[in-house]
From TrEMBL:
It comes from Acacia crassicarpa (northern wattle). It comes from the Eukaryota. This is AB hydrolase-1 domain-containing protein. GO terms for cellular component: chloroplast. Pfam families: Abhydrolase_1 (PF00561). InterPro entries: AB_hydrolase_1, AB_hydrolase_fold. Residues 100-349 form the AB hydrolase-1 domain.
Amino acid sequence: MSSICALSPSVRLEITKARLIDPLPLYHRSKCEMNRRSFTAKGIVASGVSVIESTLTAKPVQEASFTPGVERLPYKPEGYNYWTWRGHKIHYVVQGEGSPVVLIHGFGASAFHWRYNIPELAKRHKVYAIDLLGFGWSDKAVIEYDALVWRDQVVDFLKDIVKEPAVLVGNSLGGFAALVAATGLPELVSGVALLNSAGQFSDANVKSKQQSEETPLLKFVVKPLKEIFQRIVLGILFWQSKQPARIESVLKSVYKNTANVDDYLVESITRPAADPNAGEVYYRLMTRFMMNQSKYTLDSVLSQLSCPLLLLWGDLDPWVGPAKAKKIKEFYPNTTLVNFQAGHCPHDEVPDAVNKALLEWLSTLTPQPQASLQTV
């Protein structure tokens, strides 16, 4: 969930005014850019408390499903499976047999956010759910994060672990990671499904500003002062967001039906935060990564996509409404759109409906001949 929502209204207002991740705060910002910054601070960080050190006193996680008729993935504090990628430990879950489906979580979540989807999808498919680097049970690597890091991770996961054409399914940040991975390795991606995906269409005004020459004042005075301000404010954000009651409140703000905001969900978000690098990763994600969102745009990625696309969209999402899904469908005609009366995470809020729609769409995909990994 967005950690900015965990602040008091007065502090949140000051952050909103300052737009602490705006690289050029002295310049005028267009309405379109303001919308993107607002989404960066709120929408893309759909579960952005998992990289925050937690003081939560762990409660026993009940195994009985709170969604009638939908089986739930057992919660394991130690995680499931691990894969070493570029020297980093990567967590993933795998279940079932059949054509593979790879599930990619949103900002701050983990493979456990697919708790109601994995068991059902695994009845017909071999299902993988991976934790992106910096999130969940995967290592909190202190690196420079951008979309290409997760693209490379997913691409290598397909090569090393899945080893055959798969469908990529992603929520929020995971949706954009799925898209860039699909363009990075089209031979091993037979389809992509997005659930309230992150990413924005390009804006000429933002591009023009990014191409402006950096003045000595900006480089040697404004930027250093801005970094100090960022660390102070994000330190407050970090401290605020580790409060269990605040985490639950933020979760409920994006789940229109809050029945599934339970101990399992809260624990799956807070437990991975024990890593000592969590604070630095959080800072880097909220600044270095977030401020470069316009570097990779939906139109540039979709223009390279060559497989069927499915949009599973929660129309009641307070951060990413149905207009974005319609725009994606208009831009990329090979798209199927299914709408739900749900918030930002429809796969966990209305899993039965999402599972049904996803399985029906998967059944329409023509099986692809297995790619030769030697040529990838």
